[in-house]
Amino acid sequence: MFEKVSYETFREAILAHGEIPEDNIQMMYDTIKIPVRSTNSSAGYDFFSPIGFPNPIPANTPIIIPTGIKCNFGSFAKHDDRGHFLALYPRSSLGFKYGMRLINTVGIIDDDYYNNKENEGHILVAITAMSDLPLNMGTKFCQGIIQPYYKFHDELKPTSDRTGGIGSTGE
Fold this sequence. Notes:
By secondary structure, the protein is of the alpha+beta class.
């Protein structure tokens, strides 16, 4: 299930883009849209940009979009040999038209990224494009697909829990 992150977490991520008036941050936070599937047969949940840019993002310029969203996998049945993760992909229309891609190719949001000891689970999406990319507030810019994964029965069991966000389990 998708949820909004706290205002404080969203504000901190937005301020990484520079000084932004508090009223603007509050307005962005208030208008965050929960990801949705566009049709009954859509595999992906569309993510909407909570921020807009007055000019197109210049080609080959990386930018991080704080979505204001986190994902709780608690509604899925747990199996000993199977879990779930959220894979993030660019929307195909933006990929074809502008060459938009995720900087890390595919974003992987693990189950334990959500509300661990030091991380609320805010999904940040790093993008770039081959040509100037217009991005308005509310634009569908990436999609998340919930996917299963399997674990070996005889694997060595991890000995620690996640306690942070991006890069918290090592480089």
